[in-house]
Design a protein that fits this description.
It is a single chain. The chain is of the alpha+beta class and 238 residues long. It has helices at 3-27, 31-34, 55-98, 104-117, 158-163, 173-180, 221-237; strands at residues 123-129, 144-147, 167-170, 189-195, 202-208. The chain has a 5-stranded mixed beta sheet with strand order 2-1-5-4-3, with helices on one face. Helix 3 (55-98) runs antiparallel to helix 4. The termini are far apart.
Length: 238
Amino acid sequence: MSSEQKRKTDLQFHQASEDEVGRYLRSHPDFFERHPGLLAHLRLPHDPGDNTVSLIERQVAILREQNRKLDQKLRELVGVARANDVLSTKIHSLSMRLIGTTDLTQMLQTIEAVLHDQLGSDRSVLMLFGHKSGSDDLFEATFVRRLSLKTSGLEMFQTFLNTGRPRCGQIKGAKREFLFGSKGSDVESAALIPLGEKAATGILAIGSRDAARFHPGMSTDFLARLGELVDRGLASVS
């Protein structure tokens, strides 16, 4: 086939394809309403008639909406970055306050103060498994409790103990009563943080009156680092 014949064949093929596209669009006038994203990739003439909206105007509207969504996403990412920076600063602050602390009572007081003052905890409790300490009066405080893995009620948290990862969400009923006691009836959401591998050392529970403060979709990386820091701190004074 000569180059001229090939050129004519290609033109006929493209013409046939364009005719098919034209026939399809005429038969499906709502095509771009069902596939609005395609308009963002088309070059369209601007020749609207009276009381009509041209395709190019529709295209501009789509591009504006895409831009709005991208701007919103960027704002969300910036917000997350700022929040992470604040949390990182708080972790650093807690680390500095725990460094050099050799007294268990002082360490526990520091942890409780940081949870309340910097992390906005309304209720918090540190539950330790088989913790050996000569200061039994520590476990009479509302913040610290001594438990064993056979403590009645702990079975409600077996899945959490098995995974060994922080868990967040709304809390009520028997679980709330077990963690925070009768004084924690105002707690609506909580973060559970394992201390040690699969919570071998214990559990740190942080409660909030805000039902949305700790939710299942939030990142738990910060909480995991907090758990590691508290666990190491306790090990250094035990």
